[in-house]
Design goal:
Layout: H1 10-14, H2 18-32, H3 34-77, H4 81-92, H5 98-113, H6 117-130, H7 136-151, H8 155-167, H9 173-186, H10 190-201, H11 209-219
């Protein structure tokens, strides 16, 4: 069955369509808001340039720091700790690079290897500040700080650092427990040392630490310290 098409009137032909109306409105808006639009576009362009420049800057920093750090690390592995220290300090100058924090850590480790824990304190603090909470790097920083303090017979402070490191889930938890036990012994806290050694042996029952634990239990009075 044939259908009759709707006849378009002359009035409808003269009426502007949707696209024309939308385009005209957009043009009117741009004309009225031209200054604001241009300023917004300029700001967007500047932001893009800044972000792009910042990424380029960080990439160059990482590349340069990587080269410095590699040279310092070679000296460190060759046990040339005294020579490695100023090289690690150069790496720290690239403060926006990820290698800057590692430069502090290895500077501290170099001083510890040279038997100069007092000089290791400052770079260890800086490395600790650069780490995030509850991360493996924070655990490393706390263990390094505890080692610095323990070697200076500051076991009260070292126990705090070892305790924080032990509470972070990571591969250094057992080492932190041993540190807690050693410092407790040095401070004459036999019960604290025994408790830490027992805690350690939960994950490593075949360790030779059992011998030291037996000695301390005997010294404490035949194992009167209650077991956990």
């Amino acid at each position: 069955m044939a259908t009759t098409s709707k006849r378009i009137t002359r009035k409808e032909l003269r009426r502007p369509d949707w696209f024309q109306i939308t385009t005209e409105k957009a043009f009117d808006f741009f004309t009225r808001q031209r200054v604001k639009v241009l300023v917004g576009l300029a700001a967007l362009g500047v932001t893009f340039i800044i972000v792009l420049g910042w990424q380029f800057f960080k990439t160059r920093q990482n590349a340069a720091a990587s080269k410095e750090f590699g040279a310092a690390l070679s000296l460190y592995h060759e046990q040339k700790y005294r020579a490695a220290i100023p090289e690690f300090q150069k790496t720290q100058g690239y403060r926006w690079s990820r290698y800057a924090a590692l430069g502090y850590l290895y500077e501290a480790n170099s001083y510890l290897s040279l038997g100069e824990p007092a000089k290791a304190a400052a770079p260890t603090e800086r490395f600790l500040t650069a780490t995030g909470p509850n991360t493996f790097y924070r655990q490393i920083a706390l263990m390094t700080m505890a080692a610095v303090q323990e070697r200076q017979n500051q076991c009260k402070q070292a126990i705090t650092a070892y305790g924080e490191a032990q509470r972070i889930k990571g591969p250094l938890q057992q080492e932190a427990r041993l540190g807690l036990a050693r410092c407790a012994e040095q401070m004459g806290d036999l019960q604290g040392a025994i408790a830490s050694y027992r805690d350690y042996l939960k994950d490593d029952p075949e360790s030779l630490v059992t011998l030291r634990l037996a000695e301390l239990e005997a010294k404490a009075g035949g194992g009167q310290v209650p077991k956990k």
